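Changelog entry

Holo records now carry the ligand SMILES as an explicit input line rather than a separate metadata file. Below, a converted record for pyridoxal-5'-phosphate, shown in the new format.
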Amino acid sequence: MITSMTPQSTDKPSDHVPVAKPYLWGREKEYLCAALDEGWISSHGRFLDEFEKRFSEIVGVRYALSASSGTAALHLALDALQVREGDEVIVPDFTMMAPVFAVIYCGAKPVPVDVDATWTLDPERIEEAITPRTRGIIAVHTYGHPARMDVISEIARRRGLFVLEDAAESHGAEVFGRQVGTFGDAAVYSFYANKIVTTGEGGILVTNRQDIHNRAAAKKNMCFGPSAEARFDHTDVGFNYRMTNLQAAVGVAQLEYFDAAVKQKIEIADCYRRELADIGGLQMPPSAPWARNVYWVFGILIDKAFGCDRDTLERELASAAIETRRFFVPVHQQRWMSMEHRAIPIASDLSRRGLYLPSFIGMGEGTIRRIADAIRRIGAR
Ligand SMILES: *Cc1c(COP(=O)(O)O)cnc(C)c1O
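Structure line, unchanged by the conversion:
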């Protein structure tokens, strides 16, 4: 049972079903209006303070620094970890590209490593990619499934590398009962409109390391000088990566329902698993015994045994007014990545056969059943 059925449920058989949409739990408008009424519409204000404090408490880390986007938070994190030109950073080959771009913003080289059956960085492939130039590892918790952080952290510790967690798709995911975002030297989250909690656009950098927090806080806000008199004597080259109090007002309202949001995502996934169970030729998303997958999206792989290939299924669902998304194109296949081709088979295979289905808070069981029925019909043709 999906616990909170809402008026937003799209259960009419003819309705267009989007692949994602934001869900507003209730207080967003109230807090946003308060921020407007109080006149704090830019990058200072009580909602920003509250948002950062609440988020650090939810994850269980000392510092949380809001940012204008998840991508900005990634850039700040790598900059604070002092990634520079000539450095190499290990990234999963199968990922959303923001963490890879952030490595490139720093002038460093992303080194893609294949993923494993969890669709996240394969710890067994990391060591062969380490060179004297390697500075760190970015672990991405893709589609809601956490990377194997205990093992990755141990490799990093042994080899003297940093670990940055990209938890943009995995608010509340866990490894052996411990929340993601607490394993690495730092972690980032995104609050884009399709993420599990949203501020419209926005991101955050969390860490227990004061040095990382302080460096990132300065860079985020232009590296202004340390006093009023010295304000325009900048201490370094800074960025403007600030979140606004208006975004944070929406975020504070969203965080009141953090647990409920994560729970709904998991319930949607459970419902899909039940409804799709009798259809042959489909592979369900990973769920390792040590992991709490929060199912940011519900991704499936289309096997040969299914009645048609991924692209046909995508097209047929679209004509049934059901929107889906293909999986990521691997890093090593991106046109701007010039690299000698090692075989990266799993990421390549996921990219060819993967499709994710609509998943948004407020989605009714009827909609999931309708999607499953459409898939069953298309496969049987
Ligand atoms: C969404 C996302 C980001 C980027 O977040 P933005 O807020 O859109 O900049 C980074 N990493 C991953 C894995 C994401 O899914």
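Spot-checked after migration. The pocket of pyridoxal-5'-phosphate is lined by residues 69-71, 96, 98-99, 140, 166, 168-169, 190, 192, 203 (CB under 6 Å). The chain has eleven helices and 14 strands.
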